[in-house]
What does this fold into?
Amino acid sequence: DTAVSQTPKYLVTQMGNDKSIKCEQNLGHDTMYWYKQDSKKFLKIMFSYNNKELIINETVPNRFSPKSPDKAHLNLHINSLELGDSAVYFCASSRSGGAPGELFFGEGSRLTVL
Amino acid sequence: LAKTTQPISMDSYEGQEVNITCSHNNIATNDYITWYQQFPSQGPRFIIQGYKTKVTNEVASLFIPADRKSSTLSLPRVSLSDTAVYYCLVGDYTDKLIFGTGTRLQVFP
It folds into this structure.
């Protein structure tokens, strides 16, 4: 009964490859996010979707493409992976009308690019 | 967007009360103050949120002075399992939440 689940938990791949990380939430929330946490532990927002619509798109290379097939899913596809993409990627969700700033995070997906 | 400043690290012993203070001098009228906890290899977890004065829940208390330019997260009688990074954030529901560097709390036996 995991609230926000991400797959895979670990991903090791070579430079230049394309990979996807999937996220699903069963909380009935209508907003979902992708955050990136680098080796220095800075946690930065990348994207935000509300009811399948892109709301926030931070300065992220266009090699990163989020896709939301429905409001319970937000997937992250990364093309032409680079060494600097190595990080932990967190999916999160929130509900409209909830406490401002209350996000529910997944366990994270650790991406290692070799 | 309001920026936050908090100590990089703090040490404590089991059973003590820990107070982590966060500065947010540029907090806006509509901003709430939110604290998250993150254990290694896990996503951040919402702990507590407040707008002014004092808020208390089963995990922590949050003290906010009248000018709201700072806030203090208080953890009563910490245990080893409270060892984590604690993030202070300010913003309203329309803002992109900005996580700073956080405060790394180490609890010793």
Notes: Chain B touches chain A at residues 32, 34, 36, 41-46, 49, 85, 87, 89, 91-93, 95-99, 101-102 (CB under 8 Å). Chain B has no helices and nine strands. The radius of gyration of chain B is 13 Å. The longest strand of chain B covers residues 84-91.
